[in-house]
Amino acid sequence: MAKGGQPRVLLVEDEPAQRTVLAYNLEAEGFAVTQADNGEDAMVLVDEEEPDIIILDWMMPKVSGIEVCRRLKMRPETRGIPIIMLSARAEEVDRIRGLETGADDYVIKPYSVLELMARARAQLRRVRPSTAGVVLEHEDIRLDPESHRVYRGEKVLKLGPTEFKLLVTLMERPGRVFSREQLLDLVWGRDIYVDTRTVDVHVGRLRKSLMLHGGADPVRTVRGAGYSLG
Amino acid sequence: MAKGGQPRVLLVEDEPAQRTVLAYNLEAEGFAVTQADNGEDAMVLVDEEEPDIIILDWMMPKVSGIEVCRRLKMRPETRGIPIIMLSARAEEVDRIRGLETGADDYVIKPYSVLELMARARAQLRRVRPSTAGVVLEHEDIRLDPESHRVYRGEKVLKLGPTEFKLLVTLMERPGRVFSREQLLDLVWGRDIYVDTRTVDVHVGRLRKSLMLHGGADPVRTVRGAGYSLG
DNA sequence: TTGGACTGTTACAGAACCGTCGCATAGGCT
DNA sequence: AGCCTATGCGACGGTTCTGTAACAGTCCAA
User: Fold this and answer.
1) Which of B85, B128, B147 to mutate to test the interface with A (most CBs of A within 10 A)?
2) How close is the nearest chain A Cα to the Cα of B118, in Å?
3) Per-residue pLDDT at B113
4) Which of A127, A207, B32, B118 qualifies as a cystine partner to B6, CB 3.0-4.6 A?
5) To the nearest whole angstrom, how far is the Cα of A74 from the nearest Cα of chain B?
């Protein structure tokens, strides 16, 4: 596995247009992308490229995504690689089956590219050793996803689960403005229905937690648009 | 691309009856529809209207849909616009050819209007977030849509939501003169009714914000026509 | 069961922003 | 120059958006 430098992603998708768009976005996010348009090539490329993560389309001619996933999870040397499945079917049945074959996460088409990126990073963080630069940092805020701990300066902060996820999301792309809808997707999950005003309240709680031991407010409100860090 | 408000669709279909029905449904779905009945007009309208998505009939006299698609995907500035092809031929061969020319999706006649709507929305969702990463620049003004930040020289400017959208619109095509009506369409949204003089006021506010830390007025008034940048 | 921690919703006040009006001024044409 | 129109600008009332506190419901551990 590539310990330092760019994380490697193997992108397996048979439809050229979608693959191109995804590859573009992944590269823009700092991933080194290897592409395959069928399951057989994918199996070969896993050994050749040793990707850190695999994004796998469900429906493909010949060897399907689900089959690739099953095979990879059977082999000890590839079992540890996180797999995110893409599927056009939204039914819960498929979801279950996907997870039973060992996929680590699951995104339904049409997906938000933003969400997919976030999930990819999340999976990466999960498997990478915590000592190697996976600690998110922004100004004097440090966040260690592994130990679930947040520091501001030297102080340890105490955040609730939602505040924590919210901060993780914001810290993954400091400066980027997230709309309330995007934050609901990324933090709460896309199928949950809660009022967008709820985001305001949790942003407020996060702010209070972050500023409890002093320090400026690191969260920026962009009127009419959303929130961002810094 | 229309950043806020309704997504714009360019509908290219030579048969009036089908075009009318589709336009009606698309408008009911909240799209702002521009229509064309041949490929040549379509090519012109793409530049004029800058649609977010194009629905393109395969079979048309003179310049065919497939040809329009090929041409659009060759030009960098139009390549990113998703294209959905409509075709009466169901053969897989055509499907392949359609995708090879770069069409992003493909619907076979007779299609379900509902399905077409769903696919259109799906394509939109797919492309919208990928506008990220582009920083607009004009002379000493920089605008980062992702972080919602505007700089003039080294100074950070503070703009209201409408001023921001207005500046985005102007910066997307520096030098181009926008009429007040066009600006109302692009910035406020197509169905909103506000007085055209409102544009003047916001241009004034934008000017003030841009010149607050010194520097020349970058907005040009074209008497009797509208405004442009530079 | 009880208590505490957490969450989503609502209400309200203050701030930011918007659209319109009236008038002053500048531009262009005869 | 003189006239007419288009534009710039300040002010104002109304609307929308945001921050915060309060509250009730849920979940989990002791």
Assistant:
1) B147
2) 10
3) 66
4) B32
5) 33
Closest by CA to B158, choosing from B209, B103, B220, B214, is: B209
How many whole angstroms separate alpha carbon A106 and alpha carbon B204?
Answer: 49
**Is there a contact between B71 and B55 (Cβ–Cβ < 8 Å)?**
no
Secondary structure (H, E, C), B61-72: CCCCHHHHHHHH
A200 touches strand D (CB under 7 A): yes
Q: Percent of chain B at pLDDT above 90?
A: 23
Q: How far is CA A170 from the centre of its chain?
A: 12
Task: Report the relative pairing of strands A141-144 and B155-157 from DSSP bridges.
Answer: unpaired
Per CA to C1' distance, which residue is closest to D16? A224
Tell me the nearest-neighbour CA distance from B223 into chain A, angstroms. Answer: 32
Beta strands in A52-148 (DSSP E): 53-57, 83-87, 105-108, 136-138, 141-144
Is residue A133's pLDDT more than 70? no
**HSE (CB half, 13 Å, CA atoms) of A163?**
17
Q: Which residue is nearest to nucleotide C15 (CA to C1')?
A: A223
Q: pTM of the predicted model, to two decimals? A: 0.59
Nearest nucleotide over every DNA/RNA strand to the A217 CA, judged by C1': D19
- Model confidence over B51-94: pLDDT tens digits? 889 998 887 777 777 788 878 877 767 777 888 888 776 554 45
Three-state SS for A213? coil
Query: Measured between alpha carbons, how far is A14 from A22 in angstroms, rounded to an integer?
Result: 12
Lowest mean pLDDT among A216-220, B49-53, B195-199: B49-53
Q: Which CATH architecture has domain B136-229?
A: Orthogonal Bundle (1.10)
Would the Cβ of A221 be found within 7 angstroms of any atom in strand D?
yes
Mean per-residue pLDDT for B21-32? 76
* B8-130 is classed CATH 3.50.50.60: no
CA dist A81 and A72 (Å) reads 8
Domains in chain B: boundaries: 8-130, 136-229
pLDDT (tens digit per residue) in A22-33: 887 787 677 788
Is pLDDT at A200 greater than 70 in this prediction? Answer: yes
Exposed / middle / buried, residue B46 (Cβ in 10 Å: 0-12, 13-18, 19+): buried
Which of B95, B99, B104 is most worth mutating to test chain A (most A CB atoms within 10 A of its CB)? B104
Topology (CATH) of A8-127: Rossmann fold (3.40.50)
Q: What is the mean pLDDT of residues A114-139?
A: 68
Residue of A nearest to B133 (CA): A28
A142-187 pLDDT tens trace: 888 767 888 888 888 889 889 999 998 899 888 889 989 888 878 8
- Nucleotides in chain D with any atom closer than 7 Å to protein CB: 6-11, 17-22
